[in-house]
Amino acid sequence: MPMPPRPIDSTLHGATDYTVGTVLMTVFPKLAGVEGTQSAIQIRAAGAIHAGYSTITDYPLGIVKALPYRAHLAIDAVGAIALAATPFVTGQWKKGRDQWLPHIGLCLFELASLAMTDPTGHGDFHGDVDAVRRANTEDPHRKIYDGRPAVTAGVA
Predict the structure, then answer these.
(1) What pTM was estimated for this model as a whole?
(2) How far apart are the C-alpha atoms of 20 and 93, rounded to whole Å?
(3) Cα 72–Cα 74–Cα 77 angle in degrees, nearest 5
(4) Lowest mean per-residue pLDDT among 50-59, 84-93, 116-125, 139-148
(5) Nearest residue to 40 (alpha-carbon basis) of 51, 49, 27
(6) Which residues are paired to 67 by β-bridges?
(7) Burial class (CB in 10 A: 0-12, 13-18, 19+), 90
(8) Angle, vertex CA 74, rays to CA 103 and CA 39, nearest 5
(9) Distance of alpha carbon 126 from alpha carbon 3, whole angstroms
(10) Which residue among 78, 103, 132, 150 is buried most deeply as judged by most CB within 10 Å?
(11) 124 pairs with which residues across the strands?
């Protein structure tokens, strides 16, 4: 059985790390309706930790490059499961669904992201990447007004 494509390379994963970390630290608790609760503190802490170890990861967007990329991915998985477990370990799940559902949703998002991330860091697209690059460098005027197909068929 062939593996599904894992199109997220290390650069895109890094951009996602910083973006999600920032969103978790700033607006996510308010959007999830948990602002001012223990859940908000946990989610903000998770975002800060995630952005923090992203800065020391050995990938294109890492600053210090001390943590191997595969170790970063393992920490992502453990952190996602830990975040999902937090409301149940602390007992705050008893305060209502809004106190645990954001944690589960974030865990599922992280695990889905990891399932689409290529652990080699290169990105396994299972497609004709060169054809897409050629199409993206062509004159857009031709694509709109020439009448020919905008993208040519890739090589199988």
Answers:
(1) 0.77
(2) 24
(3) 110
(4) 139-148
(5) 27
(6) 57
(7) middle
(8) 15
(9) 10
(10) 103
(11) 6
Residue with tokens 């004709």: 128
Which of the two residues, 21 and 7, has the higher pLDDT score? 21
The amino acid that residue 39 corresponds to is S
Q: Which two tokens stand for residue 148?
A: 């020919």
What does the alpha-carbon distance between residue 34 and residue 135 come to, in Å, rounded to a whole number? 45
Q: Measure Cα distances from 128 to 13, 20, 57, 123 in Å.
A: 21, 29, 29, 13
Q: How many residues does the chain have?
A: 156
- Whether the CB-CB separation of 28 and 47 falls below 8 Å is answered with yes
Sequence-separated (6 or more) residues with CB below 8 Å from residue 70: 119
Q: Average pLDDT, whole number, for the chain?
A: 88
